Amino acid sequence: MRNIFTLLSLLITGVLLAQAPTDWIHLSSDQGYNGVATEQAYRYLKGKTANTVVVAIIDSGVDIEHEDLKNNIWVNKGEIPENGIDDDGNGYIDDINGWNFIGGPKGNVNHDTYEVTRLYKKLKYKYEDANESQLSKTQLIEYKNFKKYEEEVLSKREKAITSLNNIKDSEKRVLSAISALEKALDGRDLNENLDSLDLSDPEVDMAVQMVKRAQADGAQIPTVENLRTEVLDQFVGAKDHYSGQKDFSYNPDFDPRPLIGDDYSNGNEMYYGNNDVEGPDALHGTHVAGIVAAERGNDLGMDGIADHVEIMSIRTVPNGDERDKDVANAIRYAVDNGASIINMSFGKGFSWDKEIVDAAVKHATKNDVLLIHAAGNSAQNNDTTDNFPNDTYSKGGLFKPKYSKNWIEVGALSYKKGEDLSATFSNYGAENVDIFAPGVAVYSTLPDNQYRPLQGTSMAAPVVAGVAALLRSYYPSLSATQVKDLLLSSSVKLNETVKVPGTDDKMPFSKLSVSGGTVNAFKAVSSAATVKGKSKKYKKKMKNKVNVTRA
Predict the structure, then answer these.
(1) What is residue 230's predicted lDDT score, i.e. its pLDDT?
(2) 3-state secondary structure of 59
(3) Pairing label, strands 407-413, 517-518
(4) What CATH number is given for 34-109+275-549 in this structure?
(5) Which residue in 1, 219, 268, 271 could disulfide with 15, CB within 3.0 to 4.6 Å?
(6) With a cut of 50, which residues of the chain have pLDDT below it?
(7) Are 51 and 308 in contact (CB under 8 A)?
């Protein structure tokens, strides 16, 4: 029964997310929510001039024709659409709205393996039958890493297979119980007759308990058919998840890279891919883009945070782990083609070639571009557990590590208050997570003109990116480092004791991040007015900007 209730809790997640106002991320504490006070910020900015800021979304792809995004999509003015010529000479043909580093002449990558699977496969031929006693010191280090990779890949794949079989069995039992409930009601209203049903039938009893448990958690289930539809949707998602882990994520024999046609062994190769910036599954990237840049005030769906922003879509993240080569090239593409802010709502526990990503991060830092990264959804302490990419360079200084001063790591905040303030899934870290932002029940754009709430640090990062875009558009002389400092120093310090994500332990919220607070647009923009900008590229950037004034 416990497994059934676990599945039910997954079922009602989407329903419960809807209990928060769809615009809660824009609200302020005096409105009952720890949002970013967006409207208050715009009232403060009224009458001030603004410059359009380009925000690169390195993600799964963006639906650039979405009704709420199409007017805010970056257009490469140096490129003539679909003429098959690299008009602007940047190395990418027909890159009108960005680039796709996980596509090629043969199509687009959808699924890919996890990085740990690729590392396991890389070393398998060397160490699968190795005699540990005969290895050199250098080989022994590699061998121990191989055994760690092997244990994770094989155990996780076996767990996925077991979970998939269990879910299929549970699906049959749950759907049978729902059918028994429907028969027992015999056309009568579900909620009015729930307490009067004969529970001697174990299946009816199970279904009634499921409904009551969902109702106790705040879910609304008006009819049996609603219950069945939601259950089926969740089971499909769960089966897809574990099937993907079995067939792709932890399958060392799976390799989609031939679709791209690059020389994967050459980490310095840059010019590959195609110009399909949406790809086969743009749900995640489209949701992220909407949080930053959904058109404001158009009476459609929802409002993004920034009003003078263009989204550059750089497709890099498959259903699986992104590859370091692609991430490095995506960062470089964004920097070299005019992005001021890069949002990276992805991450992994292992890295294939951290140095090439570090080089790209240094390139962004040198060129005054702000990098914003999601802290991850493993409820882990990033101070003690690896999470890639990150701001710390693998090659440090003589006495201490070197890191990018333009990097912001973002944890997720819930719409709830008190001990449930931090999202239960969010990674945290007093040294390696900079700030928290709304990341639960975040309502935003989905492909095909759809909208839905989702949750994750993937949603929290673009909230910060949106506020950063406000600062860089209305205060263009601010350097990326100054924007980071302003976001952290103006964050709202929430003096509450909260559950440490993933546990029942308690800790002051202020100890979960460097800033000890959550991002606030109003405080950030009002603080920015008192700061003298230090951006060396300000005058050069201003030549290519169009000034506008808020009415």
Answers:
(1) 82
(2) strand
(3) unpaired
(4) 3.40.50.200
(5) 219
(6) 1-16, 548-551
(7) yes
